[in-house]
Amino acid sequence: MNTGGRTVNVLKEKSKHEEQTRQLNDGSAVLIQALKDQGVETVFGYPGGAVLPIYDALYKNPITHILARHEQGAIHAAEGYARVSGKPGVVIATSGPGATNLVTGITDAMMDSLPLVIFTGQVAQGVIGTDAFQEADIIGITQPITKHNYQVTDINDLPRIIKEAFHIASTGRRGPVLVDIPKNIATDLFEPTEENAADTAIDLPGYQPTTQPNFLQIQKAVHSLKEAKKPLILGGAGILHAQAMDEFKTFVEKHRVPVVNTLLGLGGIHGEHELFFGMAGMHGTCSANTAISECDLLINIGARFDDRLTGNLQRFAQNAKIVHIDIDPAEIGKNVPTEIPIVADAKEALKELIKHQEESPDTEEWVAYLKQLAYDYPLWYKEDEKELLPQQAVQHIHRITKGDAIVTTDVGQHQMWAAQYYQLNNPDHWVTSGGLGTMGFGFPAAIGAQLARPDARVISIVGDAGFQMTAQELSLLQEFRIPVKVVILNNGSLGMVRQWQQTFYEERYSESLVPVQPDFVKLAEAYDLKAYRIDSNDEAEEIFREALLSDEPVLIDCRVKQLENVYPMVAPGKGLDEMIGVKA
Prior knowledge:
584 residues, Rossmann fold, 18 strands, 39% helix, 24 helices
C-alpha cells in the first residue's frame, strides 16, 4: 500500500501547525500581547523592513494603529496623546531613518517630561555593526535624550523589558523610554517560563523615585510661609503631571498666596482665578514678572527654573528665599540656589503642606498691589483698521470656546499669543512644546490629543511656517475624520525670528520673510477637508464661530498683520524687572 502521499500531507500539517505555534509565540506576538497587558489602546507608527514581523503581529492581533505620514508626525501625536491622557504614548518605527526621524520628538518629550514608550526596529543581531542596510545606532543616538533605553538581545528578556519600559516612562519624572528590537528577536520563538512570565514583579533596585516629602523640610516651608510678607507660588507642569490641581487650589486659597505659572504650567489653576497673575518669563505679564522680582518667598512647585523663565539669574528673585518642590532631585539647585529643597511628587507635597495648621501670612496688601499692577499694565495691542491682529484672533477663539478647548501650539509668536490671550479653564488642556521649542509639533500633537479625548474640542493654533513642517498629517484628519480645528496665524514669516531680527539686528530680515506659500485653503480641500480664510477682523467672529463649533475637521487660514510683535518681552541677558513693551 502506498502511504507516500499521506506522509507528505502529515508533514505539511505538522509544518503548518509549527508555523502557527511559532507565530503565536514569537517576539512580535509577545510584544503585541504586552502592549495589551499594559492597557495600550492606540499606537502611532510607520512600518518598514525591520518591523515587518511586528506589523504582521499587529495585523493578526489588532490594536488601533494610526499611520502617520512621517515618523515625526507619529511621535508628536503620541506626545499630544500622552499630555492629555496622562498615559504613555506608544510609537513604532523601523530601523535607520525611521528611528532617526523620531529623535526630535524624543528630545521634546524628554525636556517636557512626557511619558512615551518607543519601539524601534533594528537589523538582525548577526549584522549589527556592519553598516547593514538601514542600520543606525539608535541606542547611542538616544542615550542622552531618553529617560532610559534598551536593546533586546535575548527573546526571554522581552516581556520584562516592556514592563519596565512602561513603568519607568510613567513614574517619577516622566519621560521617553526606547526599546530597540533586532529583527531576529521579533521572529525568535518565545518559550514561557516562571522566570520570564509577564506577571513577574518589577525589580529595579537602582530606580526608586522619591515621591513622599521629607517632614522636616515641609515644616521649614510652612514656617517660612507664615513669616513671609510677599510670598509667591510658581506653578509648573509638575502640578499637572501629578494631577495635583485640587490640592494646589486648596493650598493657594487656604493661605491666599498669589500664583504665577510657567509656560507649561498653564492650566494648573483657573485662568480667571483672583489669585492668578498670569504667565511669568520672557513674554510674561508685568504683574507676574514683578511678583517674582519683588517677592520675599518663592515657592516653586514642579518647575525647573529654565532660562526663558528666569532671565538673568543674577537678577532673578533677588529678595526671595527659595522653596523648590520637584520630583527630580537633579533640578533642585541646578540653576537657582535653593534654601528649602523638597524632593517629592507635587501632589504628595501639597497634601502635607495643607495638613499643617500654621497661621497664614497676611497677604492682602501684597495681593492688592499685584492686582493694581495687573490693572495698570495689562496685556495690550494697538488695533489696526485694515488688518486682523493675531491677538484678536486668539481672543475670538477664547470667546467662542469659553476657554474650555484643548489648545495645542508649535513654538514662536503664535505660541506666546495663545499663552497670553487664551485663558485656560481646565488642566491638561494646554499642549505646547516648551523646553525644545519644536516647530511642527502643534498640529500632530492636536491629533493625538483628540484621539485621547474624543469628547473634547481640540484647536491647534500654529504659525504658517511651523504648520508646513508636518502639514502632511492632514491625511489623518481626512482618513479618520478627526475633528481637530487647525488655526493658522498666517503672517507670512518666521515670526519670532523676524521679531528678534527687528529688535536686535536692525531690521535685517535675513531669510525670515516667506513670500511664497501654498494656498492653505486649497491644500485642505485637496485632503477633502473644509477650510476657510479670514482676511479682516470684521469677518473673523462669524467665520470662527461657524468653523470652531463644527463637528468636522476644519482648517482656517487666518491672515494677520506681518510685523506685529509679542509684548511684553525680556531681552536675552536682562532680568525680569527689565521688560520692554510693557505699555503702549
